[in-house]
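Weekly structure sync, notes
Attendees: PL, DS, HV (note-taker this week)

Item 1: Ferredoxin
DS walked through the input record. Source organism listed as Mycolicibacterium wolinskyi. Sequence as pasted into the shared doc:
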Amino acid sequence: MSMHAGTLVVGASQAGLQLAVSLREAGETGPITLIGEEPHAPYQRPPLSKAYLLGGTEFSQLWLRTSEFLDSCDITLVTGERIESVELNSGGPSGWARTAKGRVLTFDRLALTVGARPRRLEVPGADLGGVTYLRTAADATELRELQSEAESVVVIGGGFIGLEAAAVARAQGKTVTVVEAADRLIGRAVAPVVSEFYRGAHIRRGVDIRLGTQVRWLAGKNGRVQAVELADGTWIPADCVIVGIGVVPRTKLARQLELHCEGGIVVDRYARTSNPNVVAAGDCTVQPNPVTGSGRVRLESVQNAISQAKTAAATLSGKCEPNAGVPWFWSDQYDLKLQIAGLSAGHDRYVVRGDIDGESFAVLYYRDDALLAVDAVNAPRDYMAVRKALTQGSTIPAESAADSAIALRDLVAARA
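Item 1 (cont.): predicted structure, written out as tokens:
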């Protein structure tokens, strides 16, 4: 069984769908094939840990595009098939790929949008029933069923996914404990003041937060989890365990092609891999900072998946359009909406404005007095002002930003 794929996009993700659609919008007339191992058409992932897990949204509402739309774009969608091997023909962008079911797809050009997989918990008992991860629609559906019957939920990992899942479980009236190995929550993404705010916010809503502690093992009975033992010997009852300890970029196919991989598939600002005939986009990639063009970052967000996919499509179309959009991200926990714009890594100063106790504030990050990013909690105007400033290449003076009586939009100034 074989087919000619034309441009083959491996990974029916947000990035994969955007890449395929952008190719058509750029005037590509040849065949385009989008293939994914999940049995579904491409769908939104962020609601899986929010509205869908809470039960207020059905899966059909998460589809990114209808089959009729894909047909109208003449994009062939192949679902439920995993690419097992891929090879390029000597000296060119064309090649072939083979699926786990034995299908062979020949292609003229190749794009990798294969995403990432959850990092597995490596402790005894991690394979018990009732222990789940939250990455795919199948994961979220299983977790919805588990939580409906659970009384005690333990979340391992205090990142965004873990905290969002904890908020949903608490809203459902469950007893919830969050276990985080680091000394603060979401520590890789926000300043200590924001970490401490979310620790307090979850505690005020009834969540037990355990920081700076490791999970020793998971105990069960009849194949199902019943409790979690921590490194200090503490036991926590658990009918359901949600593991959210990060993700690992999928690089198997990239390594088969001998592409440079280091924390992900390494690409340049134009989404080109170390083999310029192959592009990659989305959570599987490591790229230069979109704002500065330097260093290497891996961005797990809808915004980056879309922006980088558009860049990859432009590259395949023979254009040079760098991925230079200002990164942004959001997280919904209870009635708290966190909005992030920019990248705060490397900051040497931050300014807090607003009312932390009133759960409406913003944290602005700076390096050498230049504005880098904002974390805004229930402060959409501050978020939009900073995002606009970063997009324009402007700044907001730190000395004035802390004065909440002054609207940030009135403080935007040109960089020195």
